[in-house]
């Protein structure tokens, strides 16, 4: 795996472990998933069957948004993608060759309260 | 247009105008776009060529996320989708038959500062 030319943003196992640990410390996070460059989960708190199901969706989303942005402004980069539902909020962060996904409980601060 | 059966969440022109006005009051918002159920921009601050380009992307995103969530948890609903780039953040809110899109300046509160 010495193709360093393409791997400016290579992420080591130690890096992945550290990211995972830092996210786990956040109080509202219920699940974490880290995907490799092929979109496969390499570390996660989920059961494998759920992880694979989610991973497919995240990867499609990351790709669609990246391609869309490429058309609109090729100089801009995605830093975070959030999907908020009634029960939770999913944060998808493209980080070099990996994608970091964190799922946290939804807090309705923007609703009428 | 009296197909009320399907139109539980029908949005009137007055509703659209009011949503638009409320978003325009937010200080960091640079652009607003409201899409109808077909994904076409019905009211926007953008130039039409840009609006159409963006609208296509938002509609794809809304559809992908909705379909994905449907598979994962059919009882859950999307309340907001956010795409953050280095220069701005786009908020996409499915609201019944319309989709409300607001683009605001990115604030780097989650970065190292």
Automatic annotation (TrEMBL), chains A, B:
Record-linked SMART domains: Robl_LC7 (SM00960)
PANTHER family for this protein: DYNEIN LIGHT CHAIN ROADBLOCK
Similarity section: Belongs to the GAMAD family.
Name of the protein in question: Roadblock/LAMTOR2 domain-containing protein
Location of the Roadblock/LAMTOR2 domain: 16-104
Source organism (scientific name): Stomoxys calcitrans
């Amino acid at each position: 795996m010495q193709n360093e030319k393409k791997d400016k943003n290579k992420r080591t196992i130690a890096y992945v472990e550290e990211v995972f640990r830092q996210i786990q410390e956040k109080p509202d996070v219920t699940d974490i998933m880290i995907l490799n460059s092929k979109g496969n989960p390499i570390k996660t708190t989920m059961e494998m069957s759920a992880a694979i199901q989610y991973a497919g969706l995240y990867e499609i989303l990351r790709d669609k948004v990246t391609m869309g942005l490429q058309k609109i402004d090729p100089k801009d980069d995605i830093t975070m993608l959030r999907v908020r539902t009634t029960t939770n909020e999913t944060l998808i962060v493209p980080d070099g060759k990996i994608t970091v996904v964190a799922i946290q409980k939804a807090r309705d601060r923007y609703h009428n309260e």
